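Saturday, quiet lab. Running sequence design on the structure tokens for the scaffold JK sent over.
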């Protein structure tokens, strides 16, 4: 059983469809304009890295012509 904090829970819902880290960062920055971008980026990186390490999410291969892998 995994318990998700507010940041991770939001990312989990976003990842119903593939998003890259930059897209998630953009969405969180828009949703929380009073929080500094460094704080948001750090929280997202920590949450995503933890989810990947636990096997809860995986990176999908890049699409042809895409610059980044989606989660």
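Result came back. Writing it out in full:
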């Amino acid at each position: 059983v995994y318990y998700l904090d507010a940041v991770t829970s939001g990312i989990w819902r976003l990842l119903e469809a593939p998003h890259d880290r930059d897209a998630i960062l953009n969405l969180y920055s828009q949703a929380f304009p009073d929080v500094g971008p460094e704080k948001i980026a750090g929280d997202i990186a920590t949450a995503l890295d933890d989810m990947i390490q636990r096997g809860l999410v995986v990176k999908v291969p890049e699409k042809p012509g895409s610059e980044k892998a989606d989660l």
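Notes for JK: Helices lie at 6-14, 21-31, 37-53. The radius of gyration is 12 Å. Ask whether to fix the surface positions before the next round.
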